């Protein structure tokens, strides 16, 4: 039992910290510089518009009820880029620990699109990656579920000011 806290810290260390302050606005480019490049087309973010529902929680829960909850904000700091996160869980699954990664891939009128991937870390020959794309509409939604683990995405609680 003495190694429980260091082990937990070690497992959560790769997740990093989520910034609690929103990104700052870029300052406007001076007019002189814009005139020097009239033929350049500015990069559009049509492939990665702002998500409708952000931030979200990704919850990995094992069959015993314990698990991990991560806050994920798909808003990126650079236009045209995606944000990807991952977490590893030892859920008591006989297939071994699983790594779950997810990324925001865009938004359309149906909702926010996410790509989820679940991969077992043990090198067993019959194992494969499971990939699933979901359209998130702002409500609790199960992404993966089996007898050992459930992974879902849901709205993050609003911050109180």
From TrEMBL:
Q: Where is the composition biased (Polar residues)?
A: 66-92
Q: Which UniProt keywords apply?
A: Signal
Signal keyword on record: yes
Q: State where composition is biased (Low complexity).
A: 35-45
Identify the stretch(es) annotated as Disordered: 19-50, 66-99
Where does the signal sequence lie? 1-19
What protein is this chain from? Answer: Lipoprotein
Q: What is the lineage of its organism?
A: Bacteria, Pseudomonadati, Planctomycetota, Planctomycetia, Planctomycetales
């Amino acid at each position: 039992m003495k190694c429980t806290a260091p082990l937990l810290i070690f497992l959560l260390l790769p997740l990093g910290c989520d910034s609690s302050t929103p990104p700052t606005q870029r300052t406007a480019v001076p007019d002189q510089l814009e005139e020097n490049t009239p033929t350049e087309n500015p990069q559009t973010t049509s492939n990665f518009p702002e998500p409708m529902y952000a931030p979200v929680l990704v919850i990995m829960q094992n069959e015993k009820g314990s698990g991990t909850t991560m806050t994920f904000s798909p808003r990126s700091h650079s236009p045209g880029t995606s944000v990807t996160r991952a977490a590893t869980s030892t859920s008591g699954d006989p297939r071994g620990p699983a790594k779950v990664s997810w990324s925001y891939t865009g938004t359309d009128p149906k909702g926010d699109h996410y790509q989820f991937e679940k991969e077992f870390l043990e090198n067993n020959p019959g194992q494969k990656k499971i990939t699933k794309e979901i359209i998130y509409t702002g409500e609790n939604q199960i992404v993966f579920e089996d007898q050992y683990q459930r992974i879902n995405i849901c709205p993050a609680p609003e911050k109180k000011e």
